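cache lookup: miss for this entity combination. No prior model stored, computing from scratch. Input as submitted by user K.M.:
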Amino acid sequence: MQSFELIRPRGIDGILSDWHPGDAFIAGGTDLLQLMKNDVVAPERLTDLDNSDLHAISLVDGSLHLGALATMAEVAAHVDVKREWPVISQALLLSASPQVRNMGTVGGNLLQRTRCGYFRDVGFDCNKRRPGSGCPALRGDNRELAIFGGSSHCIATHPSDLPVALMALDAQLDLAAPGSGTRRLPLAQFYRLPGDTPHIETALRPGEMITNVVVPPGPHARNSLYVKVRDRTSFAFALVSAAVGLAVSDGVIRDARIALGGVGAMPWRLPHVEAALRGQRADTSVFETAAARAGDGAISAGLNKFKIELTRRTVLRALRTVAA
Amino acid sequence: MIVGQSIERLDGRLKVTGRARYAAEFKPPNMAHAVLVQSTVAAGTVAGIDTTAAKAMPGVLQIMTSANAEKLNLKGASVLQPLLQGNEIFHNGQHVAIVIATTLQQAQAAAARVRVRYNPAEAVTMMEAALNQASVPRNFSNGRAEPDSRTGDPDAAMTSAAVRVEATYTTPIEHHNPMEPHATIASWDGDRLTVWTATQGISGAQLTLASLFGVPKENVTVICPFVGGGFGCKGTNWPPATLTAMAAREVNRPVKLEVTRQQMFTSNGYRARTIQKLKLAANKDGKLLAIQHDGLAQTSMPEVGEFAEAVGLASRMLYACPNIGTSHRVVAINQGLPTYMRAPGEASGMFALESAMDELAVRLAIDPLKLRLANYANADATSGKPFSSKGLRECYEKGAAAFGWQRRTQAPGSMRDGRVLIGVGMATATYPTNRSPASAQIRMMPDGTAVVRSGTQDIGTGTYTTMAQIAADVLGLPLERVRVELGDSRLPPAPGSGGSMTTASVLPAVQSAAIQLRDKLFVLALARPPAAWGTAAKSDLRLENGVVQGPGAQVSFIDLVTREAVSFVEAAADVNPDAASKDHSSHAFGAQFAEVRVDPDLRTVKVSRWVGAFDCGRVISPKTARSQLIGGIVFGIGMALMEETRVDAETGRTVNANIADYLVPVNADVPEIETIFVEAPDLVTTGLGVKGIGELPMVGVAAAIANAVWHATGVRIRDLPIRLDKLLV
């Protein structure tokens, strides 16, 4: 770890006006500090967001507003979240450990860096960490890496669970930048696929930060759940996870939402599977037909090939469970 | 009797209140901090190290490389690299420099600025790429066993047998990952060295450091009152401890070096990858006719050292079989030196043997437990020696009854709970009973407390507690009036805490010293006896509750010591293993019973029930002993289902060198564990009847789970760990 300066400005305006290139924002620090200790990143200055007044969880016109500094534990336990957006609560409760959830925040979780072992160890080349140095994961140990959205430059996965749920729910982000006010951006447009610039991971502009997450309500949100498949029962990242929401009336699927975690360069939505469900009867044969297409378009790098079949089975499990 | 009672561990309160001091927590004045710099290539030479930028960083005192490091005496050392003695690189993550600074943070920041240039050479990073280079180990089992064995004619028996099983089993590299990373503080005073270090063997560390630095053994003091888990990775004096002492001498002040979690994957050994070929032959009734167990194990390049995983030793003795062959070969590659890891040899070897036995049972359509009983050995099949004690039959019987083994139905997939697949499996456990020379000393203090002293160490297994129990019983003292001192090389020497031998080695010494002290107290009491004793002799006296009790009167220990006007009354003992133990085959035994639940779609495996019955000889401290059993079984669950150090083939560098990505079981992975003690005292090996207990309970766990997974799914996994991708078929 390199030495750094810590500043603790008050309020969002203070935070943004104090920002300089080379600064990093720190909230819970559960990821950033690991990265700094391993010399993966070395910001000269950290801006502590604890005095940002962005901790609130509230309902505005029926939509859920999550302050960027709300902790994972607070959101998971929130009574409205559990009732109207259960997939959010479940995704969080299946994340990390209680200790990490007490520190980790909504904004920080959306920006968690990949767990790719090649990225997290400076002894390896990595296009994400050192653009142009190469991606040894493509021909190396890639069991946990992406089958969707990767490129010949990077097959890292986004590791978080919360954004998978938010992706399925068409969440939007409020972003604030120094001197340019706030903009609202769909989460689906927030993450960038690696292409030939895997070091650019989001649409965030210099100095810009997530301030708020907006999640619309709906019958699909109320009838939603999160299934996470992993190598141990708790405190492990997903091999494959699925956030699903189904709006069903009179036995017919009116709306379907499916997003995957653990398999994509970003939280991965499955519009073709959703389309195969919409308007169909909510029964096993429909689920089986739709889930069979969940691996369409997947590309295996070798050791991660099993994820294609596991994706189909996970989606099927999620659909059957949410419809039960 | 306090021995055998279920008491709290004596160091428990100190540990949970943070008052137990571990190696890194000592604070000699003026201490500097060191950080290791490690190679990023697996073979070649260091072409040059640019330390200019790093040296200019605040607080940096010195940067040591092979160019300026002092030359050590490597004669007789078991770990020859990496000690900054040359430019050659033998594995990725090899230490190539050490940065010393006033604070830890300064040392870390500077270490990241050290620039190393390499002349890389072609590396062999994976064992599979060098199988044709397999060689006979040069120093197998430290000379206590031959690498190859042959009883009868296994090949001929194999050819003519009615039923045969032949399969290859593989186990991965695993790392110990104790909670406490390796840490050392070193301080020189002239040519006298003091080190506080996390070690399973203070006497070994003392000898090794004295030899490396060319000073008399007496000049080196090693202090280690508590160990935060070792599991074998603290059994050897690894280079970081030596490098810390070099650094302290270089900057002429105390230096601390704590190995980082990532460096724990490159600095203190690992369980070697093995490839084992098992052949079993039996007649139609399941009577074993031949066993052939051929093991290949990964080791480091010879310049670093050699370690041979002894996978086949249990196959030599476990079952009654007239024809048994075993062989051990090592494959040297560009990886670090492997070492002992909990149940070395047996954990890997018994995964193979006990999986193969299950495969044989399937082939014969015999219940797996019945197959074991049909081949129950009453003597060691290879050496022909009788067992010094063996309660395995009772382990099978009690374990099976507690587990409900008879409810097992034979066909795979035949037991279900709704759609969930249930599987049950079993395996045998065994581990040799080891004992080494040890010494101890007991002092009766003027305040009537006894201080028990031995240069052993408590690696979390309960040594403080068991030493106090034995002494308290002999001396007639309540436990709270016995104090234990260990973990300091100035104490009477004792062996390293490995091979499950601490109790069997140290307790006889404590007992012997206690008996001699008792005798001294009798003599002192009789020198100035109370009038009521008349002509009483030693045989009329006994020790109880802090007094010498004679006919009609007593003398307290306090009076005895104070009236002598001495600081304490002391007795010491130096004990060696009984010669009679050489005529016996001495082992602990056990039977493992596992139930797993397998998701029929997602193929996740959850261990849902466990019963383990263990003959670990006489149990001194049932509570800490049960902790050992539970810990070993949990360790085995990790080995079976998740643990694997994954290496990038191109660079030979570990990809998951952290405990977020190197998985070990969490609480949610572990079911209620029922443990049963079957006490078959081994009175040949120790008069106390104890056997080892640390390694035994993890032996057979991986096989029991693999066998249960087969029973649930019909899929036989011969390659650990059993992760869901291997079951997605």
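stored under new cache key. Chain A has a mean pLDDT of 97.
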